[in-house]
Prior knowledge:
Number of domains: 2
CATH topology of the largest domain: Rossmann fold
Radius of gyration: 22 Å
Structural class: alpha/beta
Number of helices: 12
Oligomer: single chain
CATH class of the largest domain: Alpha Beta
CATH superfamily of the largest domain: NAD(P)-binding Rossmann-like Domain
Strand content: 5-15%
Strand order of the largest sheet: 8-7-6-9-10-11-12
Largest sheet: 7 strands, parallel
Bound molecules: glyoxylic acid
Shape: globular
Helix content: 25-40%
CATH architecture of the largest domain: 3-Layer(aba) Sandwich
Amino acid sequence: MERSTRPRVFVTRQLPGDALARLAGQVSLRVWEEPLPPPREVLLTQAQEVEGLITLLTDRVDEALLASAPGLRAVSNVAVGYDNIDVAACTSRRIPVGNTPGVLTETTADFAFALLMGLARRVAEADAYVRAGHWKTWEPGLLLGTDVYGATLGLVGLGAIGTAVARRARGFGMRLLYVSRQPRPALEAELGLTRVDKATLLAESDFVSLHVPLNAGTRHWLGRAEFAAMKRGALLVNTARGPVVDPAALAEALASGHLGGAALDVTDPEPLPLDSPLLKLPNVLLAPHIASASHATRGRMASMAVDNLLAALAGHKPPHCVNPELFP
Ligand code: GLV
């Protein structure tokens, strides 16, 4: 058998678009073809045999995997978030890690706003009502919702996606508050945003929308105390990461009626178990982690992940690298 000198790459799922065909022209490629993620043992075994990994947010790249994969030289995540990857462990082994920021910003903001509006105006409930044959006449009190126009939106995090949501919200005449480690005076002036502390955001927002990465500082950012501090009847939108919200506190706040509703593209855990109380509540709008899922955007994310991987395998800094300190 001819011995290939091409780098070996394992991709943990089929990806939309033609990026993998492009990759196949340059590396010795193995793709996990199943719809569900590769089991941990498969990921570990594959990682031991390759120089490059393209992973999804469902694949854990941790110290144990890295320790058993001495040939690994590049990890490329098809996501902007990378909480599934132990970046410090990769950095200490001089393995660059790539992600896919930018290309999904507007698509994700579109979906966050779709969830916000769908929750406020009870779109999924209305659809189910019509399909179930309950619609008998026009009723003055039928499926009353919450006005988006004029309401206060509290943005938790004002990175690219939070900012893109703010632009949309501005078009809807919303009052805009945000919390963020960094003040953003130029954006405040441009979009009419006000930076506040956490307590003020919780107390004054009719809608709270989460746009922070998951890390030690943001895990359970919303817990029991925070839900209690929110306005009665406020609505929560989460397109960030499930564990930014304490799931037990969320269930309690919804059950007590203090929280008016939640629109969740991300949950803890994912997927939600079928006996989750969230599935029984009409004021919870759910989606299976699809905020960036447009044809164009998912194709671009795949392409960017391939570019990141190829650069790292060639010894260069990936165009989007989360540990750039490897390339001084
Ligand atoms: C999706 O959640 C992403 O981080 O890209």
